[in-house]
Amino acid sequence: MDDKKTNENKDLPIDRRRFLMGSMGLAGGTLASQIGFADDSAFLPPNSPPWTRSLGPGVLTNPYGRPSSFEDHVQRRSVDWLTADRIASISFTPLADLKGIVTPSGLVFERYHAGVPDIDPTKHRLMIHGMVERPIILTMDDLMRFPSTSEIRFLECPANGGMEWRGAQMEGVQFSHGMLACCEWTGVMLSTLLEEVGVDKKASWILAEGADGSHMSRSIPMDKALDDAMIVYAQNGEMLRPEQGYPVRLINPGWEGNTCVKWLRRLEIGDKPWHHREETSKYTDLLADGTSREFTYVQECNSVVTSPSPEKPWQRKGKYWVEGLAWSGNGRVRHVDVSFDGGVNWREARFSSVVLPKSLTRFGVEFDWDGSPQMIQSRAVDETGYVQPTYTQLRAARGTNSVYHKNAIHTWKVNADGSVSNVQIT
Amino acid sequence: MCKLLSVPLLFGLIACGVAYAAEPGHYDYGHAATVEEIAGWDIDVRPDGMGLPEGSGSVEDGEWLYEEKCAECHGSFGEAIGRYPALAGGEGSLTEDRPHRTVGSYWPYASTLWDYIHRAMPYTQPESLSDDEVYAITAYVLYLNELVEDDFVLNRHTFADVVLPNQGSFVSDNRPDTNNRRCMRNCKNPGTIRITSMVDAPQKTRGDVVAPEHDGAATYRQACALCHDDGIGGAPTIGDSADWLNRSDRSLEMMTENAINGFQGESGIMPPKGGFLGLTNEAVRSAVEYMLEQGQ
User: Is it the case that residue A173 has pLDDT exceeding 70?
Assistant: First the structure.
């Protein structure tokens, strides 16, 4: 609605248009639409708006609360040309509108291969068998009796950004980087379950399988399972959302989201990987010489500026808090540097959130905009010393057909009118 | 049992009570899985043949099964219909500018094909194929890729004879494979910076708001469009009044009943609820209403 209004106003002199856009960015949709041509002064000091002079609805109007209706535009979105239909498909997290490091459960990107199963938790079972002493079947109640752990960890589809190997293609940060989320996950350490069933010493791999129609399956090395893998049933303080695997899923912190099998029904312990479709046909990285890397589990260090971004343009000269997100599947983010001149000079940003391993980390840096075009980049360094690569370096190592694991330094071009374009530069 | 973890910055926290079971069975929750229970769910197959059941299927049998159950999406020659994946072709294309990854050109193992068809296909009716049917269809997809002859019969034993051409081309993960430096000043010559690709700034900075999907149109898009949009498998095409006029002797009730329970008509098979058994009857009904509205 607001946008239509803005577009209708295309004929206005540039300053007026800029003003409308500005109010939109700063104060949210309502004000923008109310500003329009109407006079807002009735709402503003020294006057009082109507909500200050009346009563609102009482408790339990929404027994399960929802965001303000003025935040309706903050939604997951998808790109229809990516997949044949919406059942085996993906939607993206609206990164530009998020704050802090935790992604609200309803905005976590979706990725399904057979849609979302509607699982009755009392009829769901987790079977653990194979090279174990005690094959068992657990109910959800059983699972929730084990000692529980909560960790904040990012979740990223390895295809995040994969549409841009050959060049800039996506209109905003929701689509260029939005197969990404970060939640507090609660559940049982997988190692606890493995100790409970008594794993054979010769076992080295685990097959995780979902209860959805695709029976999603991935092979997980035992080392990861014993290190930090979790069998989780809750997310951000409540039971998992159906889209995220209700009632139980695997989380392999820092690893490909695809390995974090949702609607988990079965763990089979074995001594070899299974080489299933999702680790051969898909989720393997084709290199320029025709060979392909397999079992490329880790999501390497990456970062992106979320404001400014195509969704968060600038309006007028002056000071801005430039911010974004950084993460690494290999541990903590140690530094994030920001460049305004396309990578010639860099300034170290400051962390504006807690810095946790394998978690989103928020950074920011102040910038005084003189109204001239800028090429904004961010470059993250993780605690292993790994420095996020440039496109040139990544393509030199892998070519352009890898699809997955594209973590190159990203560039936003801020144009003189404050709008922001997705670009790739030399 | 408590240890002090020191996290950089201001955070020092005490991690406590993560108990480790000393012995298998320490908690003794749940029940011991029986052989029958495991057999029902243990569907996975490995490249060494582990998990392959008894049974067999020929290319010949596979041909009509494939035509009936798979061709509508993947094409009679595995060439793909619309945006559904192709199952054949692309040999020698992996080093080309636009590689074409299929079972024949890319997949390393035939076991993966058996396993995947068995666990996930046909798309709208997973777990509907018998083991013999999976053997036959797998043999036929291999045949479409010119990997076996037309008289080939696939079973646990002949399985080992099938080696896919790309098997030797997979290598292990050797990342990190880049070595960027953390340079802070004068890291490159500003004069050499060029824009190599660009997407114009969006016209509007907020995307369209999508209504929540609860109505007939939404159910249709979610569960019915994949066949009824383009008349796949003989489904009456939405909006094509001729297609629907043929059925005008049936009431909304009859059609809804057919859509809920599934039926075999003259033009093809309508699976129960389109294969989305989680849909309520009401949702299917509203989708049928929506489809009929579009037909007029």
Answer: yes
Q: Which residue of B has its CA nearest to A119?
A: B278
Note whether A373 and A329 are same-domain residues. yes
Co-location of A94 and A173 in the same domain: yes
The answer on A256 and A136 residing in a single domain is yes
> Residue A292 corresponds to which tokens in the numbers above?
């392909």
Averaged pLDDT for residues B98-126 = 97
Based on the fold, state whether residues A125 and A248 are members of the same structural domain: yes
- The predicted pLDDT at position A11 comes to 40
Query: Which of A:7-36 have CB within 8 Å of B?
Result: 7, 21, 24-25, 29
Q: Which domain holds residue A13?
A: 3-48
How close B249 gets to chain A, by Cα (Å)? 32
User: Is the whole model's pTM more than 0.80, yes or no?
Assistant: yes
Return d(Cα A198, Cα B30) in angstroms, integer. 15
- Are A277 and A327 members of one domain? no
Interatomic CA distance for residues B68 and B83, integer angstroms: 19
Nearest-CA residue of chain B relative to A166?
Answer: B197
Nearest neighbour of B24 by CB, restricted to A142, A143, A196: A196
Q: Which of A73, A296, A343 sits opposite B206 (nearest CB)?
A: A73
Q: Which of A231, A263, A293 is the last residue of a domain?
A: A293
Give phi and psi for A281, each to the nearest 5. -60, -40
> Is A308 in contact with B203 (CB distance < 8 Å)?
no
What pLDDT score was predicted for residue A323? 98
Contact A56/B at CB under 8 A: no
Same domain? For A287 and A344 the reply is: no
> What does the pLDDT average to over A151-155?
98
**pLDDT score of A145 more than 60:** yes
Q: pLDDT by residue (tens digit) across B7-61?
A: 444 443 444 444 444 599 999 999 999 999 999 999 999 999 999 999 999 999 9
Residue A70 lies in a domain: no
Distance CA B153, CA B158 (A): 7
Q: Are residues A36 and A90 in the same domain?
A: no
B positions 23-42 inside 8 Å of A (CB): 23-27, 29-33, 37-38, 41-42
Q: Hey, of A81, A164, A215, A402, which one would you mutate to test binding to chain B, going by the most B CBs within 10 A of its CB?
A: A215
Domains along chain B with CATH numbers: 3-41 (no CATH), 56-168 (1.10.760.10), 216-294 (1.10.760.10)
Q: Per-residue pLDDT tens for A363-392?
A: 999 999 999 999 999 999 999 999 999 999
Query: Rounded distance, CA B252 to CA B289, Å?
Result: 8
Q: Hey, of A70, A280, A401, which one would you mutate to test binding to chain B, going by the most B CBs within 10 A of its CB?
A: A280
Residue A58 belongs to some domain of the structure:
no
Q: What are phi and psi of B85, to 5 degrees?
A: -70, 145
Residues 110 to 169 of A: which have CB under 8 A from any B CB? Answer: 113-115, 117-118, 127-129, 132-139, 142-143, 145-147, 149, 166-169
- The interface predicted TM-score (ipTM) is 0.89
pLDDT at B213: 54
- Let me know whether A108 and A232 are in one domain: yes
Last residue of a domain, one of A258, A293, A328: A293
* DSSP per-residue string spanning B180-245: -----SS-S-GGG--EEEEEPPPSSSSPPPPPPS-SHHHHIIIIIHHHHTTTGGGPPPTT-HHHHH
pLDDT value, residue B215: 77
Give yes or no for A323 touching B (CB within 8 A): no
Q: Report the C-alpha gap between A104 and A76 in whole angstroms.
A: 11
Is residue A5's pLDDT more than 60? Answer: no
Contact present, B104 and B148 (Cβ < 8 Å): no
Number of domains in chain A: 3
| Residues 98-157 in B contacting A (C-alpha not used; CB under 8 Å) | 99, 101, 103, 106-109, 111-112, 115-116, 119-120, 123, 126
